[in-house]
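Q: Hi! First time doing this. I have a protein sequence and I read that you can turn it into a structure. Is that right? Here it is:
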Amino acid sequence: MTASEPSTERPAEPWGSAFDWIEKNVGGRIVSYERQPRWRPAFYVEFEKDNGEIIPLYIRGARTEIETSDVTLHYEMRVLQQLEADGIPVPHIYGYVPEPAAIVMERSPGRGNLGTAESEEERVAVLNQYIDILARTHSLDIAPYQELGMDLPSGEKELGLCDLPRWEANYRKAKSRPEPIIEFCLGWLKRNIPEGRSQVTFLSADSGQFVYENSQLTALVDLELACLGDPAADLGGMLGRDLSEPLGDLPRAFKRYFELRGETIPTSVIDFHTVRFNLYTPMAIAPVIAHATPDVDLVQYLGWYWVWSRACLEVLAHGMGLELDTIDLPEAKPSRFTPGHDNLTKRLKRAASGDDFAAYEMDAAYRCAEYLRRAERFGGEFEQNDLDEISALLGRSFETWFDADAALEDFIESASPESDADLIRLLHRRTLRHEALLQPVLRELEGASIQHMDN
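A: Yes, that's right. Below is the predicted 3D structure, encoded as C-alpha cells:
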C-alpha cells in the first residue's frame, strides 16, 4: 500500500499537538502531510522552513502495542546522530517530539525493499553498497556507542546471546500461554553458544534495512535495536530481513563482506545468530497476538509470528541435515455458519479499496475475516492433527490445545538433545498448518523461505 493523498488539515490528537511542536521547534510550518499506512504511526511531511526552504520530513512514532517503544525510539534517535557523526549515511535528525513520542528526521530519497528493484542489476548494485557500508559500521570505534548506553559483551556467553536475555525477560513478563516453539528454540540457543568468538563491533541488529534511489543507497534506517556484539549477528539479521524484503543472493553478498573484512565467519555461527535474532519476532509478538487489541493488525502479526518461527526451525533442521515434512490442506468442512464468514469477507474486501489509512485499516479487517473464514473450514482438523501428534510423542491424550501445549513445554524443558529432531519436525508441521490458514492474506510473506549459506 502506498501513502494516502496529502492533507493540509491538522490530524486528530495527539498528532495535532505533535505537529504544533514540530513547527515551533524545527522552525517553520507544515505545508502538507500523508499518514503512512502501516502498523506504527508515521507521517510523510512537506515542511517549509522559516527561510522559505521546503524540506521533506519523516515523522516516526512509537509503536503503540509495545510498552517500551518510546524509550527505544529516543535511543534510536541518538544512535542515528552518532552514526551521522561517524560518516555513515543515515537520515538527519531535526528533533524529538516528547508527547506523543516521535523522531523528526529527514525523509531520505528513495524507498526500501530490494524486492521492488527495477532490475537485477540495481538489486546487486544496492546490495553491494549496503555490504560495503555494513563492513564500515563493523570497523567503527565502539566507545561513543558505549556512551549511548550500549553494553559491552564480556566472554563467549554474553557475546553469543547478545541482547537475548533482555528479550527473554520481556517475553516471560508478558507470557500468558504456552509457547513450545519459543521455549524449544531458547533451550537450543543456550545449549549451542558459539565458541572461539571474541570480536565486538557496532551492530545494526535488525540489519538489511535501507532506502535507495536510482541504484544508489541513500540511507540506513530503523536502528532502534542497534547494540554491540559479534559481527556475525548482522549477517543473521539480514537472512531474517530477506524473508519479507528479498535482498538477493546473500551467500554471494556475504562472500563480499568476508573479502572486505579479511576473515570468514563459520556458517554455524551465522546460523546461530539467524535463529537468535529471528526468534525475537515471535517472542515480541506472542503476547500481542494472545490478547490482540483493536489497533493491532492481527493477520500481519500472525504472519510474522508463524513465518519467523518456521524460519528458526528450518535453520536448525538444515544444520542437522534433517529432512522436514510438508502438509496437505484438508478437505474443507463447511458449517451452518460458513455463509456468514463468506459474506463478511466479501463485504470487507469490497470496502478495503483505496490507498489511504482508512483503507489500510479496512484491509486489516478483511484479512482477519478471511483468516477466520479458513480457520472455520480447516482449523478443526489442523488442531486435531496437532493434538494427535503431541499425544503420540508424550504417550497420553489431551482434550485442549492449551493442555497439550503446556505438557509439550514441560517435555521440552527436560528433554535431551536426542529429542531435537522429533521436536523440530512436530513444531515445523505446526507452523505450516497455521501458515496454510493465513495463505490467501499473507501478502509479502507468502512462500517466504530462509536462505542457507551453502546453497
